[in-house]
Amino acid sequence: MSTTLPDDQHALVALDQAFAAAHAASRAGEPPDYRQRVAHLRALLAAVRAQRDRLAEVVSDDFGNRSRHESLLAEVFPTVSSLEHTIGHLKRWMTPEKRSVALPFRPGSARIVYQPLGVVGVISPWNYPVQLALIPLATALAAGNRVLLKPSELTPATGAWLKELLNGLYPADLVEVIPGGPTVGAAFAAKPFDHLFFTGSTRVGGMVMQAAAKNLTPVTLELGGKSPAIVHPSFPVERAADRISAGKLFNAGQTCIAPDYVLIDRARVEPFVAAFAAQVSKRFPRLRQNPDYTAIISPAHQARLEGLLDDAIAKGATAHEVNPAGESFTDSRKHPPVLLTGVSDAMAVMQEEIFGPVLPVVGVADLDQAIAYVNAHPRPLALYYFDRDRRRADGVLARTTSGGACINDTLLQVVQDDLPFGGVGPSGLGRYHGREGFLTFSHHKGVFHQAALNTAGYMSPPYGAAVERLLRWVIGR
Length: 477
Ligand code: NAD
What we know:
Layout: H1 6-26, H2 34-50, H3 52-63, H4 68-94, E1 97-99, E2 109-116, E3 119-123, H5 131-142, E4 146-150, H6 156-169, E5 175-177, H7 182-189, E6 195-199, H8 202-214, E7 219-222, E8 227-231, H9 237-249, E9 259-265, H10 269-283, H11 299-314, E10 318-321, E11 338-341, E12 358-364, H12 367-375, E13 382-386, H13 390-399, E14 404-407, E15 428-429, H14 434-440, E16 442-449, H15 465-475
Parallel strand pairs: 3-4, 3-6, 4-5, 6-7, 8-9, 8-13, 9-12, 11-12, 13-14
Antiparallel strand pairs: 1-2, 2-16, 7-15, 10-11
Bound molecules: nicotinamide-adenine-dinucleotide.
């Protein structure tokens, strides 16, 4: 029995047509020049600015409450900022780069020409459904590509909004949106794109890479993982709790780079829990009806979080629920923050990415033990370290490998437009944002330009004394 739904069948037909149109267009005529690309980006910038309120509404509809300010801060602002950065730098990024030429080949010249790859596929997740769709899409357009986007089925209102927005801005053979779930996602990943850009879970990332491998399609995988926050004993616990709670509770913890767990000196585990709870009470005197506190995306995701808590408690962890107004959360998509102490690696909460407002706080003997713990686990997407001593912080950065890092705060590495963003090992493959994004979506074509006067003649038969002299010179005696 087929599990394909009629909607999926419709989407699969649309996918075939959209791919064929974009592919044919990418192989005909010239790719968009600088002016056209800037016009594409400016159109998107103006539309996102103009529709910021609508955007916040549709995302909130999908979440059953997403803080408007979180949507403006984490969807609109990064998208606008990234577009402005790209528009401001694109001319320089597109300029061919001169490279050196070895003596025997002079006066020929060498350069790298940055060329569009062709058709780029973008698969996006639900947790930041606008910025994680539009920033890759805009960066691929900046590099002169055509783009098909498959947004997440868990944010259908945002997906429909994206489709309407993009269809209004671009011809269908330049940008098209294909809505759908895993069936459509699998068919999408199987298309012979020139590049596939995936943001989502490590599990599905592996499936996408397998599908892409059949076509030798290069992939960028922006995945997840368990990002640690390490607090040095000298760092004030209130300050650490302030910044870690801010990063953890943004979007109710549904952030790929959210601090997943805390490593802190044993004596300060309880003070950290108290300081975290105090921060929550200050920021969210009430949670359930508070528009600033974002809901969990679906009942299934809520059940998963409950399952993680039940498993941890059954195996001996202590749960510290932070519920400042003593509210009930029955029949609510909101989940109160919960800190866990006394955790062990036998618990699922210390094995899986948490992706919600649950924070294990692990006591360690010293910094070396914290670093050893991180290094004994899969390489994370982010690492947070709290310490005023720069040399010690550099030492922690040198001794750990993570996609990115932020010292003395959380999340802010992702909004630095001039920094690459991406994971390492199981947290991802490849990078984007800023110039690295442009390079990801470009073919770096190496071009040698032969000069009218050159030595090439010596290198062809009949080989004589001249080539012998040349070889002695280039190889050495
Ligand atoms: P997911 O992997 O379940 O889904 C992501 C996308 O893949 C969706 O559009 C989905 O429809 C599609 N998909 C599902 N099955 C597919 C298949 N077989 N082939 C192709 N596509 C398929 O992830 P999610 O639940 O939407 O997002 C949460 C995860 O994403 C977390 O692990 C989080 O850490 C990660 N994430 C990473 C980043 C980053 O930038 N590194 C950003 C946000 C989220």
